[in-house]
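Next up, sample data.

:::
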Amino acid sequence: MDDLGVDLLSIAGHKLYAPKGVGAPYIRTGVALESVLRGAGHERGLRPGTENVASIVGLGVACEIARTTLSRETSRLRRLRDLLWERLQGAVPDAATNGHPTERLPNTLNVRFPGVRGSEVLARAPGIAASTGSACHEGGESPSAVLTAMGLEADAALGSVRISLGRGTKRKEVLQYSEALAEAWRAAKEGTS
């Protein structure tokens, strides 16, 4: 934490396969926090309520697994992510990635599909669980605030899909995903012509 200069850090357990709803804070010694809820003095006075011991143990086990597999899993996921991008790039002319070309998560690919909305691509690829990063409001879509803050025009942001790979993702599945997404893009493109 000293190397990072971090005073406060939140760990969301579900991001590393711990039970949903469990997390942990890192609070640098000397940093004062005020409780958002009043009541009992649990968790050093920061939050009242009974601690979920089973989930806390689950978080500890997930952290231990991550500690022992992180390096190997990071390399494996990066190779699969890059394979997915290579396949999509070859099948979808003018596709682009959003974000830094190298300084990014090894398991995540954010792809801009030209000429269509990301939601149209995903609607035509029912076997793919991915996200457009936009929220529907009263029947309309809004572009991802993160992508527009990065400088993307609204149409480009709406054409983007975030794909995450995980511990269970295999090479065979990445090949299937790339084919399904490319086919869905073609169908969406034809549907908008």
